[in-house]
Design brief:
Helices cover about 50% and strands about 5% of the residues. It is built from ten helices and three strands.
Amino acid sequence: MDDHPAVTAGVRAWCVAATPPISVVASGTDAGAAWLAPGDSADVVVLDLQLGVAGPAYGELKRLVDAGRQVVVYTMRDDRETALTCLDIGAFTYLTKAEGEHHLVGAIQAAASHTPYTPPALSGALGTDTRSNRPRLAPREVDVLLQWFHCESKEMVAQKLNLSARTVNSYLDRVRIKYASVGREAPTKAALVARAIQDGLVQVDEL
């Protein structure tokens, strides 16, 4: 979603030329395109943070993330605080428009396959982040994570939290990506349990 026609046309052309081609099911000048058919079926949402508003569209990003969508932020803003704030909210990854075709296509493909992707601008932001290496998980991400520790399957988590199994998977994927982004990979359930104990999210006797 972008409010500059030239940018939208360029992104569409890059997607068509990708290997394999990426299908663009919808585009628009505001976040509504992601909520209405056919945009509501998109595996990945590419979001311009500005969208004609005065400041970053953090509220729109949060709505999409809370709904379990995979969001690639693609913006002119190149400051560290904005990038880290987007990750904290739950964006899949963060790119500046200066990073161009290669990285945007790569980020979209990674988001669709739920594999981590860290483009140069984000890598720089993470490299200068003076915060703890404990990732900042959104409250709903913590809820899903802790429920998963107590359930035999993701389907059971979905039933308990009134979510779809796809949404549960998206939350857990984002948690793994956040851990990978701070150099603490957690590819398995056991590894996530260990990370959660280390970070005080859960106690051993609660498992």
